[in-house]
Amino acid sequence: MRASERAYAALRDDIVEWRLPPGSLLAEVEQSERLGVSRTPLREALGRLTAEGLTTAGGRGVVVTGISLADIDELFELRETLEGRAAFLAARRGEAAVFRRLQEELLEAPALLAGPAPATHKYYELAARLDEAIDSAVANSYLVQAMRGLRVHLVRIRRMAADNPGRLTAAAGEHAAIAGAIADGNPRLAEAATIVHLHRSLSHIKATCQTN
Questions:
Q1: CB 70: neighbour CB atoms within 10 A?
Q2: Which residue has the higher pLDDT, 179 or 165?
Q3: What class does CATH assign to 3-64?
C-alpha cells in the first residue's frame, strides 16, 4: 500500500471512530511522525479527506469538520433519495435467495443485542452485509459510489448517538423488512421500508444528540 493510501486510511478511520474529534488540528509534522510517512503523502491524504468533507483547510491548517443537526438533516435527505432508490432497484435485480438469508439472520439479530454484553459489532457487521448485497444487486456503479461516500459520514453520526439496545433491536426488524421486501421482488415495499427505517433512525439520532 502506498504511503498516501496508508495515511489516508488511518486518518479516515481515526476521524470516523472519533479518535480525532471535530475541531482536531491535523498538523503536518505531528501527523507525519505519528503515521510514519513523509509530508508529501500526508498532504495527499489530507487533500482526499478534505474532498470528502471530513476535514477543512483554513487559517489554522487542516481541521476535522464538525457535524451539526442541520448537517444530519441534509445527509438523511440525500440518504433517503439514494438508499430508497437502491432498495427499489435491488428488489428488481437482486437474487432473492441472498436477501432471504439476510432476512432470516436479521430476524435473529435481537439475540445478539440482548443481555448485559450485547454484541453490537456483530449486528453492525450484519447490517453492512445487507448494504453490500444491495450495492451488488443494483448494478449501478455511480449509485454505489455515491452511497459509499455518504456512509463515511453516517458512521460518524452513528458514533454521536450512543448504541441503544432498544433502538438497535428495532433497527434489526426494520432491516429484516427491507431484506424481505427485496427477496419478495417488491420494489415499492422495499423503498417504503427503507424510508421508514431512515425516518426512525433520524428521529433517534436527533433526540440523542439534543439530550447530550
A1: 8
A2: 179
A3: mainly alpha
Domain ranges (residues) in the chain: 3-64, 69-211
The model's pTM is 0.83
Query: What single string gives the DSSP state of each residue in the chain?
Result: --HHHHHHHHHHHHHHTTSS-TT-B--HHHHHHHHT--HHHHHHHHHHHHHTTSEEEETTEEEEPP--HHHHHHHHHHHHHHHHHHHHHHHHHS-HHHHHHHHHHHHHGGGGG-SSS--HHHHHHHHHHHHHHHHHHH--HHHHHHHHHHHHHHHHHHHHS---HHHHHHHHHHHHHHHHHHHTT-HHHHHHHHHHHHHHHHHHHHHHHHH-
Examine the pLDDT at 55 and tell me if it is beyond 70. yes
Count of CB atoms within 10 A of residue 94's CB? 22
Topology of domain 69-211, CATH: Four Helix Bundle (Hemerythrin (Met), subunit A) (1.20.120)
